[in-house]
Write a structure and sequence with these properties.
This protein is mainly β. 0% of the residues lie in helices and 41% in strands. It is built from no helices and nine strands. The protein has a six-stranded mixed β-sheet, with no helix packed on it. Strands 6-7-9 form a three-stranded antiparallel β-sheet, with no helix packed on it. A hairpin with a 2-residue loop joins strand 3 and strand 4. It is globular and about 30 Å long. The termini are far apart. The relative contact order is 0.21. Keywords: Hydrolase, Lyase. GO terms for molecular function: hydrolase activity. This is UxaA family hydrolase. It holds the Pfam family SAF.
């Protein structure tokens, strides 16, 4: 059973969703943006306001939130995996990396 609308996509381009409440590992969550709805089984517990992957993201690939690049993956990230400082390298404000 999924927890409907417990997570949101901020833009149709996003490959991460943001949780609206603390969520436990192994539950299925529905992330949504407009008509786009994705059911994802969480691999980790995700605290309120944090992100999880809705697509597989390879090391070095761009991570999108708000339809904008917020960083690059520092390792491979699986669908349902917590996305945070341990696997995301921020690119905002860096002059050596372009979006």
């Amino acid at each position: 059973m999924s927890q409907s609308f417990s997570a949101v996509l901020m833009n149709e381009r996003d490959n991460v969703a943001t949780v609206l409440v603390d969520l436990e590992a192994k539950i299925i969550v529905t992330a949504s943006y407009g008509d786009r709805k994705i059911d994802v089984k969480l691999l980790h517990s995700i605290p309120f306001g944090h992100k999880f992957a809705v697509d597989s993201i390879k090391k070095g690939e761009k991570i999108y939130k708000y339809g904008e690049i917020i960083g690059v993956a520092s390792c491979d990230i699986e669908i349902g995996e917590h996305v945070h400082v341990h696997n995301l390298e921020g690119t905002r404000g860096r002059g050596d990396i372009s979006g």
